[in-house]
Amino acid sequence: MPIRPLPQNLVNKIAAGEVVERPASVVKELMENAVDAGATRIDVSATQGGLELIRVVDNGGGIPPGELPLALASHATSKIADVDDLFRVGTLGFRGEALASIASVSRTTIASRAPDAAGGAEIECVGGRLGEVAPRGTPPGTIVEVRDLFFNTPVRRKFLRTTATELGHVSEAFTRIALPAPNIHFTLRHNDKIVYDLPAGGGWLERIAACFGRELAANLIRVESADGEISLSGYAANPSVSRGNNRMQYFFLGGRHIRDRSLQHALGEAYRGLLTAGRFPVAFIAMQMPPELVDVNVHPTKLEVRFLDSGRLYSQLLSMLRAKFLTTDLQVQVRSDDEPSAAHDEAQAAQLRQQLVDWAKGKIASWEEDDGKNAQHADDNSRELTAPGGFDPTQPLQLQPLGRNEPYPAPGAESANSPPPRNDATRRALQIHNRYLVTESAEGVTIIDQHALHERILYEHLKGRVLSGAVETQNLLVPEPVDLSPTEAAAALENRDLLARLGVRIEPFGGDTVLLSGYPAMLANIPPADVLRTVLEQIIAGVKRPDRRDLLDELLHAIACKAAIKAGDRLAPEEIAALLEQRHLVEDAHHCPHGRPTALVFTREELDKRFKRI
Ligand code: ADP
Ligand code: MG
């Protein structure tokens, strides 16, 4: 084929591939244009996740009728005029290709009127084919409507997900633009229901609270730093409100939301030692710097930028946070690298311990009856365990010994029927550093990670229950409304049946709130909303959606980890005994569900060798 220039329409469609990925991309571009137009109020509405219709109404400067066709032409922009401008962009847009791209893959109408103009005008564009400009009565500002996105590119359309998922992305795009602009009144509606209403003028913290809930906002620590021409300011969350992924790390450069790996890394470093592995800090950081220190023209949707001196920015962010944390009482510091603890964790841990003790005491009392004072022979242990009595499904599960006759269809279930090894003298153990248990065993010395072991025990219990369909749901007397992020809410509603299998029952409640009406009875110790959030984090993190069984497994891990006693929890001797006893009841108890070992064994032989006895 000879070389020939592509028709403009095709060029736009190709560009659309870069800029317009899904309805959320349209929302982003239209909202950016409205912000650039100086609007003080921006109303966004979407129908069917934005697939049917996206409408953005603003009260900004408008477009003169004569310029309407240009607005839809590619590489036509009012925002920069020459190359110099490109390096001092003060607006969100400047490439002049968003509207052209969107209009090439949808049915788009723009109606607009400048505030001082007598009347407005309108233009329509269907799949890139431009109509005539026609007069239209419209309030000052601009209304852009995008219908039937990807109607002429069916392959793209196929890639889109369910309405709820697309709505999640739309909400996220909305939030990213609304967050850094507290002086603009934003609303988002979906299928005529209001999702967000963010009034202007409340300041940044107020805006964050309106987007993510008061609870999160109450746990934010104000941070600020100025180093020459670069200033950073914003909020970093108390480590007690960490997340399972980095989605709640928002960076803004002069009002534009950006992603930057190096800055995310700095954030992680700042929280090092305050969060356990796999947990991510929450932060909202706004950066201001002169335009010559950054190139914003390196990414089609400008999500990424290039900093002239990213090393300097990295250290500035890190030292700002470190310095602040050193002078702030973070509460969790006592638990150092422990699982993040919310305010109620103390009480929760105490309650959990008490139940463990109660259960263990019951056991120990019966040992004493049976054996008098010398109750440490291995055989006793074995007898004790073969007679667990009937299983009461209403009891919190984690404190019950798992009977042999318990349904337990975990992989390798055969071994559940053969008697577990009984030789270890497991009742005596020394707790060290409030996190490890040291016991003598027939082989030598075993050092157990208390959290890892308990987590494993819980995991096996839960798994057995879920697989046999025996999860009891505890109905809440008063269903509890839980405020979620839009993405979480979408994930929750989309996965209601999966949640139900785990014993978590939810109903839609309007907006991003869901009503929690039941939760797994066996998790009586964790606040129900926490169970829900933990599970949703896993669902969202696995967007690629492995098979449901993997997902279920992930969820079980997450719940077990959340419910297990923590490193740093001081255990009473009875609790230790209870834990060790259950240790033999789970298969493969040497590894916690995350794959870390639950126990290390030092053989007697090795000890002898080391002490040069042999
Ligand atoms: P860019 O934003 O990169 O300039 P767009 O394709 O998004 O490119 O928009 C093209 C032009 O249309 C903008 O430069 C602006 O002049 C005009 N425009 C688009 N949306 C609006 C709006 N909501 N209000 C006023 N002008 C707008
Ligand atoms: Mg634009």
End-to-end separation in angstroms reads 83 Å
Strand content: 15-25%
Structural class computed from helices and strand pairing: alpha+beta
Tell me the Rg in angstroms.
30 Å
* Inertia-based shape: elongated
Bound molecules: adenosine-5'-diphosphate, magnesium ion
Estimate the helix proportion, in percent. 25-40%
Low-confidence stretches: 331-346, 358-426
Largest sheet: 9 strands, mixed
Task: Tell how many strands the DSSP assignment holds.
Answer: 23
Total helix count? Answer: 21
Quote the average pLDDT: 77
Structure described in brief:
It contains 21 helices and 23 strands. The protein has 614 residues and is an alpha+beta fold.
Describe the structure.
The protein is α+β, with helices and mostly antiparallel strands and 614 residues long. The protein is built from 21 helices and 23 strands. A hairpin with a 4-residue loop joins strand 21 and strand 22. About 14% of the residues have low confidence. It binds adenosine-5'-diphosphate and magnesium ion (MG). The site of magnesium ion has 5 residues, from helix 2.
Which keywords apply here?
5-stranded mixed sheet, alpha+beta, binds magnesium ion, binds adenosine-5'-diphosphate, elongated, about 625 residues, 9-stranded mixed sheet
Topology:
Blueprint: H1 8-19, H2 23-36, E1 41-47, E2 53-58, H3 68-71, H4 83-86, H5 98-104, E3 107-113, E4 120-126, E5 129-130, E6 134-136, E7 141-147, H6 154-159, H7 163-178, E8 185-190, E9 193-198, H8 203-212, H9 214-218, E10 220-227, E11 230-237, E12 249-253, E13 256-258, H10 261-270, E14 283-288, E15 294-295, E16 306-307, H11 310-326, H12 345-371, H13 378-386, H14 414-417, E17 429-432, E18 436-440, E19 444-449, H15 450-467, E20 473-483, H16 486-494, H17 496-501, E21 505-508, E22 513-520, H18 528-541, H19 548-563, H20 573-583, E23 599-603, H21 604-610
Parallel strand pairs: 1-8, 12-14
Antiparallel strand pairs: 1-2, 2-7, 3-4, 3-7, 4-5, 4-6, 8-9, 10-11, 11-14, 12-13, 15-16, 17-18, 18-19, 19-23, 20-22, 21-22
